[in-house]
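for the recovery benchmark. tokens below, seq after
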């Protein structure tokens, strides 16, 4: 195989892992996951991404790159009062809904009928609270966080895709060198999957599973398919949804949240520099899957390093990683004039984080936005 296949897959995998692993850990902490459950979460989602990327690339002969749902992790991290078992129940249901969307066409049309502006408003409302935590982390630990922000800003001028990864690497190095973090006893234990019996609670299923399904579809799967189409390939939409949904439901039983099509990291693996023969470019999906398998095996070592650093660093990295997605979601929310006010309502209710009737704010934000949109349509 060409070296360019390995380099593109390696960069894409490291960018996807390094820029959002802190957010995944925040999601696990919000559900009260134990150390073993968190390690199982990371391993299961790495295995699901590896298997799905390789299988879809091989079946479709199209370079298919999968990601874990970053906005989904943000949504989970924003929840309160939900146990790990309830979260697993929501993950399993979300995966089944995604698979059904690929298998049952009317369900796909129903999701597509939600206005883009309102869906973007819900996503922006989920992401905003995390972005707002950056100033507090900075004032708490300025000697560490300010240089991290400076590195992020400078690298972003030349390569936005690598900015978070390099900022995280620099922050980790600075924390250990300055004594703010102490190197743990490093070993390489064989990672293990931990089965978690799901608990199906109606409030959690409505308040977490449904919003998780919607943000994954609207902000990950649809842009991911569009990225593949923009590169001149026909995306495997039906197979992609069935495979990612099925693997998400299976991995959910071991604590992992949803996997989806990738957009930003997919673009790294779709260019002419990956392979001059576009009909052989799908091999990058096999290499990408192999790299994620290795990252899964190394997950205990990586988690030990991240667990030793100050929490303010993780908070800052999460905020910096979500600034770009928030900018895109806010632009999408306030772009279409006919749904602008409804999108603002959706964003405000969702960002409040206030649950009602045991159901999370993201669901009520969506309901409020759709309600105002319906009233405005009736008036017109």
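predicted aa per position
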């Amino acid at each position: 195989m060409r070296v360019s296949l390995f380099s593109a897959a390696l960069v894409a995998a490291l960018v996807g892992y390094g820029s959002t692993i802190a957010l995944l850990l925040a999601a696990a902490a919000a559900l009260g996951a134990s150390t073993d459950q968190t390690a199982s979460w990371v391993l299961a989602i790495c295995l699901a991404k590896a298997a799905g990327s390789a299988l879809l690339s091989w079946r479709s002969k199209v370079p298919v790159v999968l990601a874990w749902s970053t906005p989904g992790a943000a949504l989970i991290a924003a929840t309160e009062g939900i146990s790990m078992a309830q979260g697993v129940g929501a993950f399993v249901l979300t995966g089944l809904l995604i698979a059904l969307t690929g298998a049952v066409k009317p369900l796909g049309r129903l999701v597509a009928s939600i206005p883009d502006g309102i869906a973007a408003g819900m996503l922006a409302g989920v992401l905003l609270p995390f972005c707002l935590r950056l100033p507090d982390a900075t004032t708490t630990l300025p000697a560490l966080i300010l240089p991290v922000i400076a590195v992020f800003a400078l690298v972003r001028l030349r390569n936005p895709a690598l900015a978070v990864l390099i900022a995280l690497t620099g922050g980790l190095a600075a924390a250990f060198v300055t004594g703010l973090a102490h190197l743990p006893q490093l070993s390489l234990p064989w990672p293990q999957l931990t089965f978690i019996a799901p608990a199906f609670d109606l409030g959690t299923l409505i308040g977490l599973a449904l919003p998780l399904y919607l943000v994954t579809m609207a902000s990950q799967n649809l842009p991911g398919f569009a990225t593949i189409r923009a590169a001149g390939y026909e995306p495997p939409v039906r197979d992609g949804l069935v495979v990612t949904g099925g693997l998400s439901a299976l991995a959910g039983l071991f604590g992992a949240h949803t996997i989806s099509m990738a957009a930003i990291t997919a673009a790294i693996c779709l260019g002419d520099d990956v392979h001059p023969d576009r009909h052989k470019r799908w091999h990058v999906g096999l290499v990408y899957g192999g790299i994620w398998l290795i990252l899964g095996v190394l997950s205990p070592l990586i988690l030990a390093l991240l667990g030793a650093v100050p929490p303010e660093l993780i908070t800052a990295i999460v905020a910096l990683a979500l600034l770009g997605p928030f900018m895109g979601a806010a632009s999408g929310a306030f772009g279409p004039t006919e749904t602008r006010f409804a999108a603002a309502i959706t964003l405000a209710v969702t960002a409040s984080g206030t649950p009602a009737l045991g159901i999370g704010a993201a669901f009520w934000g969506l309901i409020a936005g759709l309600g105002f949109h319906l009233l405005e349509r009736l008036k017109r």
